[in-house]
Fold each of these.
Amino acid sequence: MTKHVAVIGSGVMGHGIAQVYALAGFSVSLYDLQEELLQKARASIEKSLSLLEHEGVITEQDKSAALERIVLTTDLPQAVADADVITEAVPEVIELKWQLFAELEQYAKPEAIIASNTSTFSIARLIEKAQSPHRFIITHFFNPAQLVPLVEIVRHEKTAEEVVAATVGLMKRIGKAPVLLKKDMPGFIANRLQAALMREAFHLLAEGVADAEEIDTVMKEGIGFRWAFVGPIETADFGGLDTWKRVMDNLAPELDQSTTAPAIIAERVEKGELGTKTGTGIYSYEHISVAEKLHARDEQFIRLAKLKKSGGN
Ligand SMILES: NC(=O)c1ccc[n+]([C@@H]2O[C@H](COP(=O)([O-])OP(=O)(O)OC[C@H]3O[C@@H](n4cnc5c(N)ncnc54)[C@H](O)[C@@H]3O)[C@@H](O)[C@H]2O)c1
């Protein structure tokens, strides 16, 4: 039975994953390279827990107990020594992950599960150099990991059945909605669906069909409004497959077929306009508080999660 979890990397994803485990009652070691990064992660966790408390999802005691369960450390052997499950959320660089896995195999208990939060590497690639491939698995959390219910789980044929079953059970125990893929596929399910939609959104923008705000409104007020409760395949059934056959036959040839990132994104990247992190992306963030925007986003996500919980899926 899992009691102790180690999370390696305390950045955008790692701190949220640590928060989820701690709130679910597990003792968590959160590791990063520098103390300063860990302090920043702890402050983010505290802020997020405060918001959950403010929204009535957890109590003040839940918040302080969760914080007490998280131990910050820059000592890798110490972080993983007692861990039953180790989740890595270090940058998406394969050599970095391989190097880390070699260290984890050296320092962790032989029975500890090693889970990766990779968004793009296949499990086959991740375990290429592993000495104990049977204990490797992907648990792909969605940003913000502490709020979005989905976790995609990807196994390899060498992953032990007990590891797969334990991981699915663990994700349910921490309140997540796990989906176990039947195949190892680049981008898994969620990022493939998202990339297909992004490609078309930027195509519409480039074609001047609407401005960015209007395209985002179509998503938020139309498609996205439905999709929190009705998936695309259900949508096809509800609309009628005869109708959807005509829609797809007529529209599929019209859709963007590009095989590289949209030119608008590439041009902005070239100029160093990376979005909220630089103050300008497609929109400008120079005169608004990104922190306030993220706070408002998280508040809405918490309310949506409550709504989904109260009404089922
Ligand atoms: N950001 C997202 O939206 C998102 C969503 C899903 C999955 N992911 C995946 O999660 C992983 C982490 O992404 P992120 O966005 O949290 O990155 P990030 O850059 O925000 O955080 C990575 C953290 O790992 C630390 N780190 C770097 N090298 C390390 C090492 N050798 N050992 C331990 N820690 C190290 C860094 O100091 C940093 O704090 C990546 O594999 C990424 O593809 C990201």
Amino acid sequence: MYTSFLNDLSSILDSSAICCHANMAHYTSFKAGGHADILLFISDEQQLQTSLALLKSYHFPYMIIGNGTNLLVKDTGYPGILIRFSNENIAPAINDTIIEAHAGTSLSTLSQSAASAGLGGLEFLSGIPGTIGGAIYMNAGAYGGEIKDVLSHVQVLQPNGSKTTLPAENLGFSYRTSLFQSNSNIILRAAFQTTFASPASIYNKMNSFNALRREKQPLDYPSAGSTFKRPPGHYAGQLIEQCGLKGRGVGGAKVSEKHAGFIINYNRATAQDILDTIDMVSRAVLKTFDIQLEPEVQILG
Ligand SMILES: Cc1cc2nc3c(=O)[nH]c(=O)nc-3n(C[C@H](O)[C@H](O)[C@H](O)COP(=O)(O)OP(=O)(O)OC[C@H]3O[C@@H](n4cnc5c(N)ncnc54)[C@H](O)[C@@H]3O)c2cc1C
């Protein structure tokens, strides 16, 4: 089915950037789930554009991913092509208080670069293990900040293959939501508005946020962070804990004893174990509190 496509693709990408029948447990932070028919590792915008044009000419389903820290691929796999768009080799560019970076840059690299240049405001992002692209798509946030608060503008690749720059105000952000969840634009680059601050005060903030994470979150186990979105007026973790579900789960997945908002893969869970645990938790919270939880983790396949 993919023979001719792979043949054409070999003139665009090195063979090391093409993985057939890719085990997505290796590329997602849940460390569970099925295979993608093909996984491409792309770091360069031009290669991304050319590969996408080829892909579209074959009409294969595809999706862009970042670090896979908010993804669960079903055990039956993803029937199509996943493109891992990441790049840690291009340092963010700084112009006065604006810092601009490739969408595949990790949030920790972004916030470290800002900190070492004495640019504050991005500290809350430093412990989120995703890329800039994934974080903008999700409007990721922590400790009172959301990425929308510090984003200035993005450069995107539109479905028609052209690039355009969009200001943050036009990106339909709200809690864990952005316009990117309802269009097929791919985020290529992003620029952030920071403020001058002393590197020492920035590192202090980052260190205290990250110490809080280590204290409160089950970072020793594979997960996708908070499994559910926060229902209006509540915290998902508190509701789950009040249902007595800490430590309860299905197969190798369970609600973390350390933080009930996290479902963890503690013993070789399948994606179905995780999905069944999500279902069990959702039903219990609905029954007890009449509140419908909505998963934050993106489910593929
Ligand atoms: C231990 C742990 C702690 C976490 N803590 C937090 C937290 O404090 N706050 C928080 O908000 N999240 C948190 N998360 C969840 C996750 O890290 C964030 O949602 C992160 O922003 C996802 O980025 P990613 O690169 O891994 O995206 P992925 O999981 O790879 O993808 C997520 C979505 O983004 C889309 N996407 C990725 N790149 C692009 C692109 N370039 N263009 C368009 N769409 C794209 C994908 O299609 C997918 O739908 C945590 C996760 C873990 C494992």
